[in-house]
């Protein structure tokens, strides 16, 4: 790493600051109180990428900020791809320490949903997941999580559009980076800034039981999705190594705790893998497990990855699985993974780019 980069990364990123921290930072630079609101609006209403564009600030202050802080330059687009139908735009970002993370914009039905990463890599090791296959590098900072949002918000603003939904379903396990992820979500839903509705943000977790309970106790309004993928420990142990630590029955108990505490419907994610977890036995076990629970199941045919030889279920098995769930009164939707042609499954673009030497 050269000296310039080292100096730059040592500077605080304004997107890491809460409003109070920004006030203190500006006061330390000798600024009057009202400056904090001005800068905050540049950050979260206009998604500023440079100090130069903050034209209602005195030139001297812009120069001072330039010397003492950074904005988005910790998040540089490294590789970009659009799906054939043009609805999906995926960006591989290079971070200041050269880690690569992925963010995807999906544009369908007047919705502009972005899929955000919470970590570089992931420690959970789910066998079917490209991110799990690469292992854990590090947690993302608040600025790196929010920066993924502001990047697309800026691009959409240029065409008078905006981000309507966020799913924390990119690389990493959001609840394994609890405080940074939740602070970033607070930032995205802050009424004085981005002001995205709480219900427009979904957190997906592999099932970290203590974190689910904490989330429930904090009475968070942001919907939760739990990646279940199997209804028995025998099956789930094979797919999701952390199931040995947080087994199915305990996980379901934590989910019930969450529903009781928040009164919210919970979503379960289920990647259907041919001949593996798409059997009638699994459907029946799942039906029994979830019967009567305030929940919904999202069925997603597996997106094949390099490091796992499982295949997606065929449409007949998907339907059979759905029908059996319905017998138990459990509602489900089949979701199609968007942008398959651009490796829009989490971690897949990084995998492809690294292995093709792009
Ligand atoms: N770590 C979190 C969020 C990121 S993964 C979690 O596991 O929930 C987002 C979703 O994509 C999860 O439901 C995950 O199980 C699913 N997923 C990962 N790899 C997949 C693949 N190859 N095919 C289909 N779904 C996949
Ligand atoms: Fe991590 Fe989620 Fe992938 Fe599992 S599915 S390895 S928890 S990112």
Question: What does it look like?
Answer:
β10 (266-272), α11 (280-290) and β11 form a beta-alpha-beta unit. Helix content is 38%, strand content 19%. It is an alpha/beta fold and 358 residues long. The strands form two sheets. A ten-stranded mixed β-sheet has the order 1-2-3-4-7-8-9-10-11-12, sandwiched between helices. Strands 5-6 form a two-stranded antiparallel sheet. The protein is built from 13 helices and twelve strands. The protein is elongated and about 70 Å long. It has two domains: 14-67, DNA polymerase, domain 1 (Orthogonal Bundle), CATH 1.10.150.530; 75-347, Aldolase class I (TIM Barrel), CATH 3.20.20.70. α2 packs across α3 (35-44), α8 packs parallel to α10 (248-262) and α11 runs parallel beside α12 (315-327). The chain has helices spanning 3-10, 19-28, 35-44, 59-68, 130-134, 142-157, 178-189, 209-217, 233-239, 248-262, 280-290, 315-327, 348-356, and strands at residues 75-82, 88-95, 100-108, 111-115, 119-121, 136-139, 165-168, 201-205, 224-227, 266-272, 295-301, 332-334.
